[in-house]
Amino acid sequence: MLIKDKVALVTGGADGIGRAIALVYGREGARVVVTDCNEEGGRETAAMIEKAGGQAIFQRLDVTKPQDHEAAVAAAQKQFGGLHIACNNAGISGEFRLTADHTPQTWQQVIDINLTGVFLGIRAQLAAMLQNGGGSIVNISSICGQVGLDEITPYVAAKHGVVGMTKNVAIEYGSKGIRCNSVGPAFIKTTLVNNLGADVRANLSSMHALGRIGETEEVAELVVWLSSDKASFVTGSYYAVDGGYLSR
Fold first, then answer.
1. Beta partners for residue 59, in sequence order
2. 156: how many CB neighbours lie within 10 A of its CB?
3. At what angle are helices 39-51 and 16-27 packed, to 10 degrees?
4. 3-state secondary structure 209-244
5. 99 vs 200, which has greater pLDDT?
6. CA distance 126 to 85
7. Are 6 and 85 in contact (CB under 8 A)?
Protein backbone atom coordinates (compact mmCIF):
# COMPACT_ATOMS: atom_id res chain seq x y z
CA MET A 1 0.00 0.00 0.00
CA LEU A 2 1.55 3.26 -1.18
CA ILE A 3 0.05 5.54 1.46
CA LYS A 4 -0.77 3.21 4.32
CA ASP A 5 -1.81 5.01 7.52
CA LYS A 6 -1.72 8.45 5.88
CA VAL A 7 -4.67 10.83 6.13
CA ALA A 8 -5.86 12.16 2.78
CA LEU A 9 -8.42 14.81 1.88
CA VAL A 10 -10.11 15.08 -1.53
CA THR A 11 -12.27 17.95 -2.77
CA GLY A 12 -14.97 17.23 -5.32
CA GLY A 13 -15.09 13.61 -4.22
CA ALA A 14 -18.76 12.95 -4.96
CA ASP A 15 -18.22 11.63 -8.47
CA GLY A 16 -15.97 11.54 -11.50
CA ILE A 17 -12.23 12.02 -11.09
CA GLY A 18 -12.60 13.04 -7.44
CA ARG A 19 -14.41 9.84 -6.54
CA ALA A 20 -11.81 7.75 -8.36
CA ILE A 21 -9.01 9.50 -6.46
CA ALA A 22 -10.75 8.96 -3.12
CA LEU A 23 -11.28 5.27 -3.88
CA VAL A 24 -7.65 4.72 -4.89
CA TYR A 25 -6.47 6.60 -1.81
CA GLY A 26 -8.57 4.21 0.26
CA ARG A 27 -7.31 1.17 -1.64
CA GLU A 28 -3.72 2.24 -1.01
CA GLY A 29 -4.23 2.43 2.75
CA ALA A 30 -5.10 6.05 3.49
CA ARG A 31 -7.84 7.21 5.81
CA VAL A 32 -9.86 9.47 3.55
CA VAL A 33 -11.82 12.66 4.11
CA VAL A 34 -14.21 12.94 1.17
CA THR A 35 -15.50 16.46 0.61
CA ASP A 36 -18.02 17.93 -1.80
CA CYS A 37 -21.06 20.23 -1.86
CA ASN A 38 -23.00 17.20 -3.16
CA GLU A 39 -23.73 15.48 0.13
CA GLU A 40 -25.44 12.40 -1.32
CA GLY A 41 -22.62 11.62 -3.73
CA GLY A 42 -19.93 12.40 -1.18
CA ARG A 43 -21.44 10.12 1.43
CA GLU A 44 -21.75 7.42 -1.20
CA THR A 45 -18.04 7.67 -2.02
CA ALA A 46 -17.12 7.41 1.65
CA ALA A 47 -19.38 4.38 2.00
CA MET A 48 -17.72 2.75 -1.02
CA ILE A 49 -14.31 3.15 0.61
CA GLU A 50 -15.53 1.59 3.84
CA LYS A 51 -17.26 -1.25 2.00
CA ALA A 52 -13.91 -2.06 0.38
CA GLY A 53 -12.31 -2.28 3.83
CA GLY A 54 -10.96 1.24 4.17
CA GLN A 55 -11.68 4.14 6.48
CA ALA A 56 -13.44 7.31 5.35
CA ILE A 57 -15.67 10.14 6.45
CA PHE A 58 -17.64 12.72 4.51
CA GLN A 59 -17.43 16.45 5.16
CA ARG A 60 -19.57 18.93 3.25
CA LEU A 61 -17.41 21.56 1.58
CA ASP A 62 -18.16 24.53 -0.67
CA VAL A 63 -14.73 25.32 -2.08
CA THR A 64 -15.51 29.04 -2.31
CA LYS A 65 -15.85 29.30 1.48
CA PRO A 66 -12.65 29.55 3.56
CA GLN A 67 -14.45 28.32 6.67
CA ASP A 68 -15.49 25.11 4.90
CA HIS A 69 -11.88 24.28 4.05
CA GLU A 70 -10.84 24.94 7.62
CA ALA A 71 -13.68 22.72 8.87
CA ALA A 72 -12.65 19.90 6.52
CA VAL A 73 -9.06 20.02 7.73
CA ALA A 74 -10.27 20.13 11.33
CA ALA A 75 -12.44 17.07 10.66
CA ALA A 76 -9.39 15.19 9.35
CA GLN A 77 -7.42 16.11 12.44
CA LYS A 78 -10.23 15.23 14.83
CA GLN A 79 -11.23 11.94 13.20
CA PHE A 80 -7.86 10.65 12.02
CA GLY A 81 -5.25 12.67 13.92
CA GLY A 82 -3.78 14.87 11.20
CA LEU A 83 -3.48 15.55 7.48
CA HIS A 84 -0.70 14.24 5.24
CA ILE A 85 -2.17 14.36 1.73
CA ALA A 86 -4.60 16.64 -0.07
CA CYS A 87 -5.96 16.60 -3.60
CA ASN A 88 -7.69 19.78 -4.72
CA ASN A 89 -9.87 18.41 -7.48
CA ALA A 90 -13.20 20.28 -7.38
CA GLY A 91 -13.95 22.33 -10.46
CA ILE A 92 -16.45 23.27 -13.15
CA SER A 93 -16.12 23.95 -16.87
CA GLY A 94 -18.42 26.96 -16.81
CA GLU A 95 -20.40 28.16 -19.81
CA PHE A 96 -19.12 27.81 -23.37
CA ARG A 97 -18.96 31.29 -24.92
CA LEU A 98 -16.54 33.36 -26.96
CA THR A 99 -14.37 35.54 -24.72
CA ALA A 100 -16.26 38.77 -25.44
CA ASP A 101 -19.55 37.05 -24.68
CA HIS A 102 -18.54 36.04 -21.17
CA THR A 103 -19.93 38.27 -18.47
CA PRO A 104 -18.20 39.29 -15.24
CA GLN A 105 -20.52 36.79 -13.57
CA THR A 106 -19.63 33.81 -15.80
CA TRP A 107 -15.95 34.68 -15.41
CA GLN A 108 -16.10 35.05 -11.64
CA GLN A 109 -17.98 31.81 -11.01
CA VAL A 110 -15.29 29.73 -12.71
CA ILE A 111 -12.41 31.65 -11.12
CA ASP A 112 -14.00 31.40 -7.67
CA ILE A 113 -14.35 27.61 -7.87
CA ASN A 114 -11.42 26.53 -10.03
CA LEU A 115 -8.70 28.92 -8.87
CA THR A 116 -9.66 30.66 -5.63
CA GLY A 117 -11.13 27.38 -4.37
CA VAL A 118 -7.76 25.68 -4.84
CA PHE A 119 -5.96 28.54 -3.08
CA LEU A 120 -8.33 28.38 -0.13
CA GLY A 121 -7.83 24.63 0.10
CA ILE A 122 -4.05 24.86 -0.03
CA ARG A 123 -4.08 27.62 2.58
CA ALA A 124 -5.95 25.47 5.10
CA GLN A 125 -4.09 22.27 4.22
CA LEU A 126 -0.63 23.80 4.60
CA ALA A 127 -1.28 24.77 8.21
CA ALA A 128 -2.17 21.19 9.12
CA MET A 129 0.71 19.65 7.17
CA LEU A 130 3.23 21.94 8.82
CA GLN A 131 2.08 20.55 12.16
CA ASN A 132 2.91 17.04 10.86
CA GLY A 133 6.31 18.07 9.56
CA GLY A 134 5.35 17.73 5.90
CA GLY A 135 2.93 16.37 3.35
CA SER A 136 1.92 16.22 -0.29
CA ILE A 137 -0.58 18.38 -2.18
CA VAL A 138 -1.81 17.50 -5.66
CA ASN A 139 -3.86 20.05 -7.57
CA ILE A 140 -5.98 18.97 -10.51
CA SER A 141 -5.39 21.30 -13.42
CA SER A 142 -6.14 20.26 -17.02
CA ILE A 143 -4.63 20.11 -20.47
CA CYS A 144 -6.07 23.63 -20.44
CA GLY A 145 -3.37 24.47 -17.93
CA GLN A 146 -0.96 24.30 -20.86
CA VAL A 147 -2.96 25.15 -23.98
CA GLY A 148 -6.10 27.02 -24.94
CA LEU A 149 -9.51 25.65 -25.88
CA ASP A 150 -12.28 27.50 -27.68
CA GLU A 151 -15.02 29.25 -25.71
CA ILE A 152 -13.86 28.56 -22.16
CA THR A 153 -11.49 31.43 -21.44
CA PRO A 154 -12.31 31.55 -17.69
CA TYR A 155 -11.56 27.83 -17.37
CA VAL A 156 -8.29 28.07 -19.30
CA ALA A 157 -7.20 31.07 -17.22
CA ALA A 158 -8.03 29.30 -13.97
CA LYS A 159 -6.27 26.08 -14.90
CA HIS A 160 -3.14 27.95 -16.00
CA GLY A 161 -3.33 29.73 -12.65
CA VAL A 162 -3.44 26.43 -10.77
CA VAL A 163 -0.20 25.35 -12.46
CA GLY A 164 1.53 28.61 -11.50
CA MET A 165 0.25 28.50 -7.94
CA THR A 166 1.46 24.92 -7.60
CA LYS A 167 4.99 25.98 -8.55
CA ASN A 168 5.00 28.79 -6.01
CA VAL A 169 3.79 26.58 -3.17
CA ALA A 170 6.48 24.04 -4.05
CA ILE A 171 9.16 26.72 -3.89
CA GLU A 172 7.95 28.23 -0.64
CA TYR A 173 7.30 25.02 1.31
CA GLY A 174 9.76 22.47 -0.08
CA SER A 175 12.26 23.16 2.69
CA LYS A 176 9.44 22.54 5.18
CA GLY A 177 8.77 19.04 3.89
CA ILE A 178 5.73 19.79 1.75
CA ARG A 179 5.60 18.80 -1.91
CA CYS A 180 3.09 20.28 -4.35
CA ASN A 181 2.37 19.09 -7.90
CA SER A 182 -0.35 19.52 -10.50
CA VAL A 183 -2.00 16.98 -12.79
CA GLY A 184 -3.53 17.82 -16.15
CA PRO A 185 -6.18 15.42 -17.44
CA ALA A 186 -7.35 15.55 -21.05
CA PHE A 187 -10.89 14.41 -21.87
CA ILE A 188 -11.94 11.80 -19.31
CA LYS A 189 -15.09 9.69 -19.06
CA THR A 190 -17.09 11.83 -16.66
CA THR A 191 -20.52 13.41 -16.52
CA LEU A 192 -19.07 16.49 -18.22
CA VAL A 193 -18.05 14.51 -21.31
CA ASN A 194 -21.29 12.57 -21.31
CA ASN A 195 -23.19 15.86 -21.46
CA LEU A 196 -21.42 16.99 -24.63
CA GLY A 197 -23.26 16.70 -27.91
CA ALA A 198 -22.98 13.46 -29.85
CA ASP A 199 -21.13 15.19 -32.69
CA VAL A 200 -18.53 16.58 -30.27
CA ARG A 201 -18.09 13.25 -28.49
CA ALA A 202 -17.56 11.53 -31.84
CA ASN A 203 -14.41 13.59 -32.42
CA LEU A 204 -12.92 13.41 -28.92
CA SER A 205 -11.09 10.12 -29.34
CA SER A 206 -9.19 11.28 -32.41
CA MET A 207 -7.78 14.25 -30.46
CA HIS A 208 -5.73 11.83 -28.33
CA ALA A 209 -2.73 9.89 -29.63
CA LEU A 210 -4.05 6.73 -27.97
CA GLY A 211 -7.27 7.03 -29.94
CA ARG A 212 -9.57 7.13 -26.93
CA ILE A 213 -10.53 9.29 -23.98
CA GLY A 214 -9.32 8.49 -20.50
CA GLU A 215 -10.78 6.69 -17.51
CA THR A 216 -11.07 8.39 -14.14
CA GLU A 217 -8.98 5.63 -12.56
CA GLU A 218 -6.09 6.45 -14.90
CA VAL A 219 -5.94 9.94 -13.42
CA ALA A 220 -6.25 8.59 -9.89
CA GLU A 221 -3.29 6.22 -10.30
CA LEU A 222 -0.95 9.13 -11.07
CA VAL A 223 -2.38 11.22 -8.25
CA VAL A 224 -1.80 8.52 -5.66
CA TRP A 225 1.79 8.04 -6.83
CA LEU A 226 2.48 11.78 -6.56
CA SER A 227 0.90 11.72 -3.11
CA SER A 228 3.15 8.91 -1.93
CA ASP A 229 6.76 8.73 -0.78
CA LYS A 230 7.58 7.05 -4.10
CA ALA A 231 7.53 10.62 -5.48
CA SER A 232 9.70 12.00 -2.69
CA PHE A 233 11.91 14.10 -5.03
CA VAL A 234 9.03 15.32 -7.20
CA THR A 235 7.61 18.79 -6.58
CA GLY A 236 6.56 21.90 -8.47
CA SER A 237 5.81 19.89 -11.60
CA TYR A 238 2.90 19.51 -14.02
CA TYR A 239 1.99 16.00 -15.18
CA ALA A 240 -0.36 15.45 -18.10
CA VAL A 241 -2.68 12.44 -18.10
CA ASP A 242 -3.80 13.09 -21.62
CA GLY A 243 -3.39 10.07 -23.88
CA GLY A 244 -1.01 12.12 -25.98
CA TYR A 245 -3.33 15.10 -26.50
CA LEU A 246 -0.58 17.64 -25.87
CA SER A 247 1.80 15.87 -28.25
CA ARG A 248 0.01 17.30 -31.28
1. 35
2. 21
3. 30
4. CCCCCECHHHHHHHHHHHHCHHHCCCCCCEEEECCC
5. 99
6. 10
7. yes
- Determine the 3-state secondary structure of 114 from DSSP: helix
pLDDT tens digit sequence for 168-197:
999 999 999 999 999 999 999 998 787 677
> 205 φ, ψ to 5°?
-60, -40
Which burial class, exposed, middle or buried, applies to 53 when counting CB atoms under 10 A from its CB (0-12, 13-18, 19+)?
exposed
What CATH number does domain 7-186+217-247 carry, 3.40.50.720, 3.40.250.10, 3.30.450.40, 3.40.50.880? 3.40.50.720
**CA angle at residue 30 from 25 to 36, to 5 degrees?**
60
What is the pTM assigned to this prediction?
A: 0.97
> Which among 168, 84, 88, 172 is positioned nearest to 129, based on CA atoms?
84
192-219 per-position pLDDT tens digit = 787 677 777 889 999 999 999 999 999 9
DSSP 8-state class, residue 106: H
What kind and span of H or E run contains 57? strand 55-60
Q: Which residues are catalytic?
A: 155
